[in-house]
């Protein structure tokens, strides 16, 4: 059952105490009045990110092409804080439906990333320095872009074998990207794509798109045939790092869940010497 925000959180966001669970994501967000409240938000990150997101959300809502893309609007508490007791708020959007169609999610992501590149032209220091309390996704992202020679010895052999497929092919310039788009694109009643739960990373756009492909194939019924465009060159390298990010973010690792994609992209992975058990 989803934990409800404490009374002090509801009071500071000026919403009633009649809350309801919201579907999607990890099913931990709730609706209270006209806000959606989500737990476990980093106050340092949100102090930087929320104003950036609010300005961009406002600009997108005023833009002539509003029907193409929208961004959910963050809302501060009454005292101006963006996070209260770990909870952050965004404007609740009635009548939206989840969208997991690969082409739509990728198109929304490309528009979003183009706007983010303009809104945040330089990397903020907090996205390059390790967080004080990194999440499992933060740890997985860091490992996916760390040379395998520097990985800890505790990683499973199959993961090490997957890392052996990496090379130094450039994936494109890093910028502010959303690293969890596949589960966070909705369609509003006018048919506009509405992006929620911005999970920021300073990485190449191609890597963020590769995560979308992996997620949509594994969890949202996209056909395996879409992987054919990701089997060579920089696309393959982006997909390998996307796979590492997703695999390593599971604690413990659940390699079997990723087998359908691994069997296409790295068909001989389990036969790799590094993947064989030792001892």
Polypeptide structure, described:
With 279 residues, this protein is an alpha+beta fold. It folds into 2 domains: 13-92; 95-126 and 134-279, Alpha-Beta Complex (Aminoglycoside 3'-phosphotransferase, Chain: A, domain 2). The chain contains 8 helices and 12 strands. The chain has helices at residues 7-12, 43-62, 102-119, 136-144, 157-163, 205-219, 233-249, 259-265, and strands at 19-21, 30-32, 35-38, 69-71, 74-75, 83-84, 87-91, 97-98, 174-178, 185-187, 193-195, 200-204. The strands form 3 sheets. Strands 1, 2, 3, 5, 6 and 7 form a 6-stranded antiparallel beta sheet that branches. It has a 4-stranded mixed beta sheet with strand order 4-11-10-8. Strands 9-12 form a two-stranded antiparallel ribbon. Strand 10 and strand 11 (193-195) form a beta hairpin. The longest helix has 20 residues, at 43-62. The termini are far apart. 34% of the residues are buried. The model has no long low-confidence stretch (mean pLDDT 92).
Structural class based on helices, strands and sheet pairing: alpha+beta
Beta fraction of the residues? 5-15%
Helix content: 25-40%
Spans with pLDDT under 50 lasting ≥5 residues? none
The geometry reads as: globular
Q: Return the CATH class of the largest domain.
A: Alpha Beta
Count of individual domains: 2
Distance between the termini: 43 Å
Number of β-strand runs: 12
Concise overview:
This protein has 279 residues and is an alpha+beta fold.
């Amino acid at each position: 059952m989803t934990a409800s925000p404490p009374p002090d959180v509801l009071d500071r966001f000026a919403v009633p105490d009649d809350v309801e669970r919201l579907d999607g994501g990890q099913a931990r967000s709730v609706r209270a009045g006209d806000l959606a409240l989500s737990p476990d938000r980093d106050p340092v990150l949100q102090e930087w990110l929320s104003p950036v997101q609010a300005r961009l959300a406002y600009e997108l809502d005023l833009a002539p092409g509003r029907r193409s893309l929208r961004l959910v609007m963050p809302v501060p508490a009454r005292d101006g804080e963006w996070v209260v007791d770990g909870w952050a708020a965004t404007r609740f959007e009635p009548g939206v439906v989840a969208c997991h169609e690969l082409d739509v999610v990728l198109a929304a992501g490309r528009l979003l990333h183009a706007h983010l590149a303009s809104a945040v032209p330089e990397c903020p220091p907090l996205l390059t320095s390790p967080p004080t309390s990194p999440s499992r996704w933060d740890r997985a992202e860091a490992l996916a872009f760390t040379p395998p020679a520097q990985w800890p010895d505790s990683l499973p052999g199959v993961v090490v074998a997957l890392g052996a497929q990496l090379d130094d092919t450039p994936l494109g310039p890093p910028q502010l990207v959303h690293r969890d788009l596949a589960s966070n694109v909705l369609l509003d009643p006018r048919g506009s794509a509405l992006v929620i739960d911005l999970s920021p990373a300073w990485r190449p756009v191609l890597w963020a798109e590769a995560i979308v492909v992996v997620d949509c194939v594994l969890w949202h019924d996209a056909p395996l045939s879409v992987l054919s465009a990701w089997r060579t060159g920089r696309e393959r390298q982006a997909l390998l790092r996307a796979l590492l990010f997703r695999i390593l973010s599971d604690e413990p690792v659940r390699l079997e869940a990723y087998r359908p994609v691994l069997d296409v992209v790295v068909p001989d992975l389990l036969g790799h010497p590094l993947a064989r058990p030792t001892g």
